[in-house]
Amino acid sequence: MRPARNTAQRREVIGVLSRVGGFISAQELHALISRDGGRIALATVYTQLKALVVSGDVDVVMTDRGENLYRRCVVDTHHHHLACRRCGATIEVDAPDLETWARQLAERHGYGDLRHVLELNGICAACQST
User: Fold this and answer.
1) For domain 1-74, is the CATH number 1.10.10.10?
2) Has residue 2 got a pLDDT over 50?
3) Over 44-80, what HEC string results?
């Protein structure tokens, strides 16, 4: 796969995601960019986010409503997330047994270039106590 070009729009999306720190929707990201004076179409934001997810520069999780939320990746290696359905708090989790199982399953069925996403969600301890 060809590396994505480092366009002004890409830099703008990465810059805002880096400042926000947490997960944010494409619409919220677009609004922040626009508020800061950036001129980028919402469709372009989606295109850039898709490319950044594929490249591993951005993490994505899906809400209960089916909306994708994005954030600048803070871990350089393949990982998964455990997210709170109420407040959105998210932690990275390492799952070596899952990785072994996925690789073995792909090999057993003759698949190569395996990619996967695992989303775990629940209610965090702080939200359970409220």
Assistant:
1) yes
2) no
3) HHHHHHHHHHHHCCEEEEECCCCCEEEEECCCCCCCE
